[in-house]
Amino acid sequence: MISVQGLSRRFATDRGTIEVLRAIDLEVRGGERIAIVGASGAGKSTFMHLLGGLDRPSEGTVRFEGEEIFRFTPAQLDAFRNRTVGFVFQFHQLLPEFTALENVMMPARIGRLPLDEARARAERLLQDVGLGHRLGHKPGQLSGGEQQRVAIARALVMNPRLLLADEPTGNLDSVTSGEILALLDRLHAEHNLTLIVVTHSEALAARMDRVIRMVDGRISP
To answer: Which of 94, 136, 161, 200 is least surrounded, with the fewest CB atoms within 10 Å of its CB?
Structure first.
């Protein structure tokens, strides 16, 4: 599904150039579950952003089913992020002024789905993650675990084929983390997802099909 070749990312600073990623090669099969682990500053989150088209590489390619995503027009890249990739972040990035239902509907509305369909999808997903009774609650009225469940539902509302999760349990206690891990396992199977997770959690990594270790911007052999 995904082919990464020679992927590098550099950032210019007042103190010179920082190489965050260095010539990464990686193949990902459809339906695979991958954990990306490594010390802070190893380049994990930058790599995730490049996979999802949130950032552009200094060199190298990311192909999704043979198509080089960085050759897309801006509109095509926006559509790729909206319809093909779901994102879950350590900080849930929910909009505080909107309800759980409205937050989950947001990508569908951006993707120009009819209002009734967007609402039906959001309601179904919130039921699926155990929050059917919280549709009208705003993020400030939800626990940390509930907020992350809303974020996961939002990531899935456009039926993506690839789910990218960056430290999805990083701010949660051990019990809630376990619940989120079980939820991700179930949703992976039910939605036929390809799942790539950046994590410091050994428990999460152990549940994946493959663990990739990053050291100083490279994949460790």
So the answer is: 136
Predicted structure pTM score: 0.90
Helix spans in 73-172 (H): 74-83, 100-110, 115-128, 144-156
Q: Round to whole Å and give the CA distance between 42 and 38.
A: 6
Domain borders along the chain are: 31-56+73-219
Q: Give the orientation angle of helix 115-128 with respect to helix 144-156, to 10 degrees.
A: 130
Does 31-56+73-219 carry CATH code 3.40.50.300? yes
* pLDDT tens digit at each of 221 positions of the chain: 999 999 999 998 888 888 999 999 999 999 999 999 988 888 899 999 999 999 999 999 999 999 999 999 999 999 999 999 999 987 778 999 999 999 999 999 999 999 999 999 999 999 989 999 999 999 999 998 899 899 999 999 999 999 999 988 777 778 888 888 888 888 888 888 999 999 888 878 888 999 999 998 999 87
